[in-house]
Amino acid sequence: MQVVQILGTIIVGLSETEQLASADRIKRSYIWRVAMASILVAVIAALLGRLSWQLQKSRARVMEAQAEHARNVEYLAYHDNLTGLPNRALFSRLLYRQIQHAHRYKKQLALMFLDLDRFKEINDSLGHEAGDDLLKKMGRRLGESLRESDLVARLGGDEFIILLPEITEETQVTTVAGKILAAVAKPFTLAEQEFRITISIGIAMFPADGEDEQTLMKNADIAMYHAKEGGKNSFRFYSEKLNTDSLERLSLESGLRNALENNEFRLFYQSKQDMATGRMTGIEALLRWQHPDLGLIPPMQFIPLAEENGLIIPIGRWVFKTACRQNLAWQAQGFPKLSMAVNISRRQFFDEDFLKDVGDALQESQMAPELLELEITESVLMHDMDRTIGILKELKQMGVRVAIDDFGTGYSSLSKLREFPLDTLKIDGSFIQNMIPHAEIKNLTTALIDLGRSLGFTVVAEGVESKEQADLLRTHSCDQFQGFYINKPMPPEEFTLNWTTG
Ligand SMILES: Nc1nc2c(ncn2[C@@H]2O[C@@H]3COP(=O)(O)O[C@H]4[C@@H](O)[C@H](n5cnc6c(=O)[nH]c(N)nc65)O[C@@H]4COP(=O)(O)O[C@H]3[C@H]2O)c(=O)[nH]1
């Protein structure tokens, strides 16, 4: 078409230069348009290329994000999100593999079950944040006291588990357990305060104490339970004997269920004295279980069990009814009117029928409310402050007295103590028994006496065993005391006899 135009121009008779100039213009315009078209095509191609590259990149990003998500899900499924340690599921897998390996190469393994002593108390008194903080710090400390090849995991709550592979002799395990106890013994800073924490460790060995995961875990748990029973802050290897003891615990539990019906509980009584005059000021009722086969069982062996399974509620009801009745019986026999103290466990105190049960016991026995003193521990006090204060106020309205028991062993916030409507502060026996040999405990005990008195409480020293202790307490203006130095807890008949003659 353009060639025809050029020929057309020549035909109309223009000079050669003019004709060439015109053809040249048309040619340049043609080249320019071709160049523009090529650039356009190149730009479009470049844009398309970039688009496809971006598409590929974003596809790769999506795939990477999906992989990352899958990795996160897997991490969360196999790790404890508080401490970042492997969780039960991952530990179980790794343990299974290690057992197979140890089996094939005839090696030993050690499984350690760890449980924090009194973790609940810390959680309850300092709050869950401090409890979580402690668990995180504990996880880190455990990791630091082990070798790379050892494995530590958190099973949940305050339970940790450790696997030591390639053990050749038991002493290696003992060394590691000692190292762990020492690492944990250093103070922890929680809620800006320093705390000392202890743990109990139960150890089961592969293959001696079990050849599969379940048996090893169960036996390490049994050993841990016995380490706790034996005074906490210690470790214990599993043995057949421990297993028998655990079976005994089970039978104890089933026996406890029938003990109330079978009338197997007894109350023993211990008196309190005025420090200055030596006059008897009150009586404490202490529970015992007269087991048909095992004999007289002290409360600490079955009360935690009764707390766990809820039996403490009917047992506790029986305790304050019996104690009120006994007090009235003594009054009827002509003995002076004295206060009767009864221990209340946490589960009982927060039970919805608690106030009604106290009221019923008073009404039924016709004992004056001001003669009933309920002893609660520091951990009850700090568990749920608002609720506790509400219950204490209602008890006050009923005229009942309240004592804080085992004072000094918990984590009471001293500044909060004044907010509770309490009457008596009982200093724990462990202070009294250690204040003569240890000057710092003596100072602490006298500080507790001063604190209690300054808050207007009656201060009672528990567990006084010697004249020396009683004399020291007297010089520091303690109000009353209780302990083997005066008398041991005894059955009502013996108590009556003692009262008559003493
Ligand atoms: N080493 C020593 N110990 C002394 C001395 N004087 C008294 N004790 C013992 O110290 C414990 C004092 O009672 P607690 O601190 O309330 O501690 C009580 C209390 O927390 C709990 N408990 C006892 N009876 C009941 C009850 O009826 N209900 C509830 N919930 N808990 C109870 O069981 C704990 C232990 O009671 P028990 O074995 O009777 O032990 C009693 C008592 O026998 C002494 O001079 N030296």
TrEMBL record:
Organism: Desulfotignum phosphitoxidans DSM 13687
Keywords, ordered alphabetically: Membrane, Transmembrane, Transmembrane helix
Sequence ranges assigned to domain GGDEF in this UniProt record: 107-240
Superkingdom classification of source: Bacteria
Classification via NCBIfam families: GGDEF
A GO BP annotation: cellular response to nitric oxide
GO terms of molecular function: cyclic-guanylate-specific phosphodiesterase activity
Domain EAL: 249-502
InterPro entries: Biofilm_reg_signaling, EAL_dom, EAL_sf, GGDEF_dom, Nucleotide_cyclase, Rev_trsase/Diguanyl_cyclase
Name used for this protein in its record: Putative diguanylate cyclase/phosphodiesterase
Catalysed reactions listed for this entry: 3',3'-c-di-GMP + H2O = 5'-phosphoguanylyl(3'->5')guanosine + H(+)
Transmembrane parts of this sequence: 33-53
Pfam families: EAL (PF00563), GGDEF (PF00990)
